[in-house]
Amino acid sequence: MIFVTLSHRKNEKKMSNIYGIILAGGQGTRAGYGTPKQFININDKPVIIHTLIKFTSLKITGLIVVVPEKYIKHTNKLIKEFAIQKVIITIKGGETRQGSSYNAITCMDFNDNDILIFHDAARPFVGTEIIKKCIKESKEYGAAGVYIKATDTIARIENNFVKQIPDRSELYYSQTPQVFQYKIIKEAHELALSKGINDLTDDVQLVLNAGYKVKVVNGSPGNIKITSATDIDLAECISRREKE
Question: Around Cβ 156, how many Cβ atoms within 10 Å?
């Protein structure tokens, strides 16, 4: 079962639309709960629902939700249960992050100047102002991504020995969203596939490989990615704080 609420035809007048692509295709259970992290409850709501709620408050055309195929029915049930608006379609993820992103950009007809917002479902605390800033910058520059300065020293390791300590002043942690004009992200994916590249874990890397620049948007330490049981504990604290 999928949700389809909008019609898109190639012969329609080309106008710029904005779509949120919520990437929840991972099967990972590193948090130790026996279920993918995007479906773990944080204060009575699954992580993916917290994330979708953030996007429904934005002025966007619609949402595309990417989940493991066996969780499509479950996801649609959650969307109905929590009355999430703006979901156009729920689709299956790929075998890799790159595959999930590609499934999203090929699931329906887009216009070249449409704006696609790629966001990890496991980052439920992204600020809406950050998303809006990314949309603005992608309209002007074609591509934008969210980053925060590295606060820890980072080492490059080879064969279990420290090889190099890069200059931390030049290093940043990557977050999502990552936002692109459709024509750019489409070209980037097609170029990668033509070269046999199908397992990149970052859409910005695809765009950089295609020769485009990506505008930096400042992120937030609170925009955490839930991966471990410790992250879940932290997420519950942040969720309670957001309600206050």
Answer: 9
* DSSP helix, strand, coil percent of the chain (3-state; round to 5): 35, 25, 40
Domain that holds residue 43: 18-243
Q: Is the pLDDT reported for residue 12 higher than 50? A: no
- Establish if 211 belongs to a structural domain: yes
pLDDT tier for residue 8 given thresholds of 50, 70 and 90: very low
Instruction: Answer whether residue 213 is part of any domain.
Output: yes
Q: Which residues of 91-110 are buried (b: 16+ CB within 10 A; e: fewer)?
A: bbbbeebbbbbbbbbebbeb
Residue-level pLDDT at 196 = 97
The CB density around residue 228, as the number of other CB atoms within 10 Å, is 13
Token duo for residue 139: 């309209």
**Crossing angle for the helix pair 97-105 and 182-194, nearest 10 degrees?**
130
Q: Structure tokens of 204?
A: 């910005």
3-state secondary structure of 186: helix
Q: Structural domain tally of the chain? A: 1
Q: Which residues pair with 35 in a beta bridge?
A: none
Rounded distance between C-alpha atoms, residue 242 and residue 183, angstroms? 36
Q: For strand 156-158 and strand 161-164, is the pairing parallel, antiparallel, or unpaired? A: antiparallel
Domain assignment present for 35: yes
Give me the DSSP letters along 46-89. Answer: EHHHHHHHHHHTS--SEEEEEE-GGGHHHHHHHHHHTT---EEE
**Which CATH number covers residue 25?**
3.90.550.10
Q: pLDDT confidence of 240, banded at 50, 70, 90?
A: confident
Query: Cis omega before residue 166 (within 30°)?
Result: no
